[in-house]
Amino acid sequence: MVTDDAPTEGPERHSKEVGRAHGIYVNSALDASDLHFLFSAVFTNKKYNGSALEIQGADRFYLKQREVSVVYGTGAFRFARGFVVLETVYLHLPGLDAVIKFNVAVLHY
Question: Are 8 and 16 a contacting pair, CB within 8 Å?
Answer without folding.
Answer: yes
